[in-house]
Design goal:
The chain is α+β, with helices and mostly antiparallel strands and about 55 residues long. It has 1 helix and 4 strands; from the N terminus they run αββββ. The radius of gyration is 10 Å and the shape is globular.
Length: about 55
């Protein structure tokens, strides 16, 4: 999968829980999305297989 598409899909999934995205970090196994929800800053790791974890 193209890197740009992979990041875009991860951002779409994270936005289901976030108010907005501040930054993202991409590795070979996951995309980490940093954003805000309710005034708090949170990070989600979305793995290539679709699993999502808050970190």
């Amino acid at each position: 999968m193209d890197e740009k598409v992979r990041v875009q899909k991860a951002e779409e999934k994270a936005l289901e829980r976030l108010d907005y995205i501040l930054d993202h970090y991409s590795s070979s196994d996951f995309v980490e999305i940093v954003g805000c929800v309710g005034g708090d800053t949170v990070a989600y790791r979305i793995y290539n297989d679709g699993r999502m974890y808050e970190g």
